Amino acid sequence: MATSREMARRARELRELIENHNYRYYVLDDPQVSDAQFDALMRELRQIESAHPELADPDSPTQRVGGQASREFREVVHAVPMLSLDNAFSEQDILDFDRRARERLDVAAIAYSAEPKIDGLAITLHYQQGRLVQAATRGDGSRGEDVTVNVRAIRSVPIQLRGRHPPAVLEARGEVFMTRKSFEALNRRQSERGDKTFANPRNAAAGSLRQLDPTITAERSLDLFFYGVGATEGWRVPPRHSELLAALRDFGLRTCPEIDVVDGVEGCLAYYRRIGGRRDKLAYDIDGVVYKVDRLDWQRDLGFVARAPRWAVAYKFPAQEETTVVHDVQFYVGRTGALTPVAHVVPVFVGGVTVSNITLHNMDEVARKDVRIGDTVVVRRAGDVIPEIVRVIPEKRPHDARSVKLPARCPVCNSHVDRTEGEAVARCSGGLVCAAQRLGAIRHFASRRAMDVDGLGERLVEQLIESGRVATPADLYTLTVAEVAELERMGPRSAANLVAALAKSKQTTLPRFLYALGIRDVGEATALALAEHFGDLDPLQAASFEEVQEVRDVGPVVAGHVREFFAEERNRLVIKNLRAAGVTWPVIERAVTVAEGPLTGQVVVITGTLATMSREQAREAARAAGATVTDSVSKKTTLLVVGADAGSKLKKAQDLGVRIADEAEFRQLLDRSGPAR
Ligand code: 9MJ
Fold first, then answer.
1. Ligand 1, pocket-test mutation among 85, 113, 260, most atoms within 8 A of CB
2. Ligand 1 in reach of 83 Cβ (< 6 A)
3. Which percentage of the chain shows pLDDT scores above 70?
4. Global confidence as pTM
C-alpha cells in the first residue's frame, strides 16, 4: 500500500505531466504521447484524487470543468481597455495606413507583425503569479462579462503558466473560436437532439462561451489563440510584438501558427494574398488579416485615436457568408432535359462578387434544405466555389412563404415532366422538340469532342434555331453558304468556312457520332465501349436491352437510356437524315466476337454468391462459352445460374419458367466440349 506521501507526490507528478503534454499538443503542435496514453494519465490522476480527497486541488487538470453554474455573468471592468481595430477594405487603405505611420514616426520602412484575423470573440485572461484567476469577454471594450469557469473548460488554456518566474500580473488577450470541424460536429449533434443549430462557427463559439453550464462549454471544443497583452506587472515586456508573442508561447499560451513578421507595405500585401489563397484550407474561419507595427516603442509613439490604435489595422476579406431573401424559384431546362431549380435572391455581395441566382440542383436538395419562396437564407461563396444556399433562417420565415413545387410541364416546351422514382433529377420528356434541349443538343453535337464542327458558336446556333432554319442536328448539313451569310455577324467568308467545317465533320468515327447524339448518360467512354462492342450503328440500333447490357460497364440504367433513345421514332429519323446527308464512319473491327461454345445462343443471368468463383469470373466464363450475359431476368433469359442467397431474380426466373442451374450444374455446362465446327 502506497503511503499518502507517495500518493501526493504521484498526484503532483501527474498534474505536471498532463499540463506538459497539453502544452506540447496545443502550443507546440508536437504531441509526445498518443491520446490513449494521455487519457490513461488523466484516469490515474482521477483515481488518486477520488481515493484521497485530501489531495484535491482546484487547479488540477481534472477540475477544469468545475465551479458553479452561475445564473448570470458578473461584470468585469477592464483595467486596460480592450481595443478595437480600424478596418481597411482595399490596397489603397493599407498604403495610406503605412504612409501615415511612416510619416508620424519619420522612418523609411516599418516591419509589421502580420496575423490572420480570427473570426471569433475577443477575450482577456488574467493570470496572477502564473495562475488563471479571471477570464472576461471584451464587451464594449471597457466592461465585459466574467466567463472564468467556461474558459477553464477550454483544454488549450493553461490554468497555470509555465516557467519558474511567471509575472505577478499578466493579462493575456486573444480570440476564442471554434474550428469548422467542431462547428459541423456540434450542429450535427444539435440537430440530432432536436436543438437549435448555429448559423456559423462564430455564433457557435459565442453561444458556447456564454453557457451558464460549463460542462456544456467543455463538450463543445472551443479554441483560443493569443495575440497581445493588457495589464502586466513584474514582467519586462520584450521590445517587439513578435517577441512578446514568443514569450506568451513560452508561458504555454497558444498563438496562431500563421503569424509572421513582414517588411513594409509590400510584405503586408503579399501576406494578404498568401493567407487569402489558403483561407479555405485553414481549420478555422478568418475574416481578414491584422497588421501591427512590430516595435512596441513605435506603437507607443503612434498612440491611439479614440479606441483604435494608430499602430494596427485590420484588412478585411470580402465576406464569404451573407444573408439575403429568396424572392422566386424558377426551373431551367438543360441539354439533357434536366430541370434545375434556381433560387432568385435579392442581389448580395458575397465572396467578392454579387450573387443574384443560386442553383438548388434538384428537388431533393430543395426538400433537404427546406427552402421556400420568401425565406431569408444564408448564402456562401468561398473562393472559386459556386454560390450556395447554406441554410434557411427559420425564425425569419414569413407567414406567406410558398413551398417550391416541381412543375408538371416543361417551362420551355410544355411537354410533361418525368421524375423517375428514386432519382433526384426531374426531366422534360420533350427530347428534340424542346427548344432548351435543342440548343444544347446541337451545341453538344457540334462540340469539339463530338462532331468537331469549327465555328458553330452559341449565338450562331441560337440564330439558326430562332429563324426556324435548324431544328435538329441533321438540318445543319442542309445549310447553304448564302443562307448562313445572311445571319448576324456573318459574312460570305465565315459562312463559307462554316459550311466547309460542316462538310469536313461528316467524316467522323462511330464513338464520336454516338457521343454526339447526346444519349443520356452516354459520355465519351460509354460511346467508345458501345462502338467497340457493336462495330457499327445498325447492330446497336437493333440490339435488345439485354444485348446492350453485354457491353462493358453498361448496366441496366444506361442500357435503358440507349434503348429508349433508339426506340424513339423522331431520333431514328434524325439519324437517317444525318446519314443521308453523308455522315459516315469506318466500321470498327469488333474487338469482342461472340465465342462459339457450349452456351452459344444462351442468354444467361448469374445471381447470388458462388462458392468457387466470383460473379465476374462466372460472367466471363459464360461469355467465353458463347453465352450472352445480362444483369436482369426477362423473357429472353434462357438460363439462370444461382449461387447462395439468391433474391428476386430466382423468383422471377421461376415465374417465367427459365431454366435454373446451380453452381455445379453450371460448371458441368461449361465443361462440355463445344459443338463441332
Ligand atoms: C484577431 N481577431 O485575430 C487582434 N486579432 O489586436 C488579432 N485581433 C487585435 N489581433 C488588437 N490577430 C486588438 C485586436
1. 85
2. yes
3. 96
4. 0.58
